[in-house]
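=== RUN LOG ===
request id: a7f3
mode: sequence -> structure
chains: 1
length: 135
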Amino acid sequence: MENQPYAVFDYSKLPLIEIEFTGEKATDENFNAYLKETADIPSKTERYISIMDTSKASYLAAKYRILQGKYLEENNERIQKQAIAIIFIAPSFLHRTVLKAIFIIKSYPSPVFIVSSKEEANQKAQELLEQENTK
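=== RESULT ===
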């Protein structure tokens, strides 16, 4: 069986980058592909907003959370400079609460917004882009 992607990236609306978690369990192969794709974002646009749809996200094992943390540490300065914001779509109240708690404990290199729907994410992204364009 072919390894399914951990997340799918859509660059069709740059500078918005939509990242949808597929619900596939993280494996060494698909999680490293996800991190590599994330690292390639700067080659596609100067500034960007990531919209991460976590609706289908599954539990992430500690091994992969550590890899994600290392990636963020190594790319902190670049993310601060290039990422306008990151918007998480989390339909469930529990999921939103957990995400908020994570970002209270460990800050993210760019502004973080946690919303409950794609519509809310798109609205927030448009507000952020308008602010960006008036700078």
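=== NOTES ===
The beta strands are 7-13, 16-21, 48-53, 83-89, 112-115.
The mean pLDDT is 92.
=== END ===
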